[in-house]
C-alpha cells in the first residue's frame, strides 16, 4: 500500500504564546511545529504501515525551511519527504494551495492520501477536501478511526452529535482529527536517518496538469482586503489568595455585579 | 465567467434527520440584510430526502424562494451527492453569494463545492457586509462595488482579516453557529418553491454508510447557557469534573470544556468551546484549569464576565479574565460551590 500524507509547518500557538500589552500577539516568541491534525494523520499512516506494510511519503508546501517537518516525519518513520517550494506559489489561498498539492501528488502512486482536518494558523479545513476534488477521488473528512479492509477503508467520520461508519474504495482521501491517536515520538535511529535522508524538492515545473493562472497569489480567488491584529479587552484583576479568601473575593465581586 | 450573470443571495439550508439546523436559520437572517443592500432576494437551498415539509419554516425565517433537491440518495449526509446537488444548483441558478454553516457538514461540503465550481471560500466568517474592493481606491486598479466583504479570525483569533472574492462567482462563505442572528419568524410567510433534481448516479465517490451512531449522552446546547463552567486539562480526570458539575448546578449553569478534555475523552465534543468547538457568549464563564490557548480564547472571549481559576499564575487565560484566581482548583471550586449555595439559600 502507498500512502501520501500532507503536512504543514505552522507557528506553535500552544504554551509559549504571549500577548503584547496592547492586546496583540507577540509573534517574536513563536516557534514552529508540525500542525497537530497533520501529525495525527501521519501517525495514522505509520500505524497502517506497521500493520499492513506501506510506503509513506510525506508532502509539504512552503518555504525552504519547511523541510524541517519532513525530517521530523522521517524521524517518526515516514519513508520519503517531498518539499514543494517555489516563489510563484507564494500567497496562495486554499484553492491555489490545494491545486498545487494536487499537481504534486499526480506524480505519485497512492492508495490513500491523509491530511489533517485543519491547520492551527488558518483553521479553514478546506485544503484536504479540495485536493480530493481536484484529484476526483472520494473524501472522508473528520476521521476519528481508520482501518483497511481489502481495497477499501472503513472510517469513523465525526459529526457534532453522532458519527457515521463509512466505507470507501481506495484511492481516497481522509482528513484526520487530532483525537484519532497519540502520535509517536521520533526514535534515535529515526533521527539519524532523518539527518541523512535526502529531501526531494519540487518546484513549479514538477506540478502536473496545473495552469500558471491557478497558482500563488494570482491564482487565488480570495484576496485579502485588510488584515489587522485583534485588540483584546485585556486582563482584569488577578489575585493570589488562600482558598477561603479567594472565595470571599469572588463572591463579593459576584454581588457587586449582581450575578447572585 | 460573466460576473453580471450572478444574482441573489443563497443559503445552504442544512437539515439533519429532516430538522433544519439552527445555523441555517441564522444565515437566512444575515442573507436578508445582504439581499437588501444588493436589492435582490434570498433563496434557501434545501437538500435531502423527503424534506418538502421544511419549506414553510425557511419562509418564516426569511427565504423568499426555496430550491428543493429531494432524492433518496440524499437521506444522510454524504460528501459526493450533496456536493453534486449544491454545485448543480449553483451552475443552474448562478447566485452571487452562497452562505453555508461552518458545521461538520458545511466544512466538508463547502470546500468540495468551491473546488468544483472554481471559486473562493472564506471559512468561519464573523462579519459579512457589502462594500468595495479594494476598500480604498488604488490608482490604476479597478475598484469593484457591491462585493461581499468577509471578515474572519485567523491564527486562533489573534488576527482579523477581511477577504473578498472579486473575480469569481459565487462568493462563498461559511459561518459558525451562534454568530449571526435569526429574524423573528413571520408566521404564515410563504416562499416560492422550485423543485430541482440534477440526477444522482452513484460512482466510486459515493461512499457507503455502514452505520449511523448517535451520541448517547443527552445533547446539551452550550451555546444557549447563561452560565458555563468550563474545565480544561488541569481538572485532571473525568471523575474530577464532578466539582464543576456541582458548581454549575448551584448557578443553574452547564459544564463545558476545552479541546484537551474532548481529546482525552472526558467529555463529548458537543461540550467543547473554542475555534474547533463552539463559540459561546454566556453572562458568566468560568475557565477552570484551562491554560487559555488562543484557540480556546477565540471561542469564549465575548462572554460578559470571565472568571479564571488556575494554579499557573502565568497562564494566558488570565489575560482575558475579569477575575483571575491563582490557586488550586481542587480547593477553590468546592469552597466556592458551598459559599454560593449558602448565599443563594440566604436570599
Fold and architecture overview:
The complex is a heterodimer of chains A (260) and B (347). Chain A is α/β, with parallel strands linked by helices and 260 residues long. Chain A has helices at residues 36-52, 67-76, 94-105, 127-135, 188-196, 243-256, and strands spanning 2-7, 9-11, 32-34, 55-61, 80-84, 112-116, 139-149, 152-158, 162-169, 172-176, 200-202, 223-229, 237-240. In chain A, α2 (67-76) crosses α5 (188-196) and α3 (94-105) crosses α4 (127-135). Chain A is globular, with a radius of gyration of 22 Å. Chain B is built from eight helices and 18 strands. Chain B has helices at 22-38, 55-60, 79-93, 106-117, 241-250, 259-263, 294-297, 329-346, and strands at residues 9-12, 15-16, 19-20, 42-48, 65-70, 97-101, 121-125, 127-133, 144-154, 159-164, 171-175, 192-195, 208-214, 227-231, 254-257, 284-288, 305-310, 323-326. Classes of the chains: A alpha/beta (260), B alpha/beta (347). At the A-B interface, α3, α4, β7, β9 and β12 of A face α3, α4, β7, β9 and β10 of B.
Concise description?
Chain A has about 260 residues and is α/β, with parallel strands linked by helices. Chain A has six helices and 13 strands.
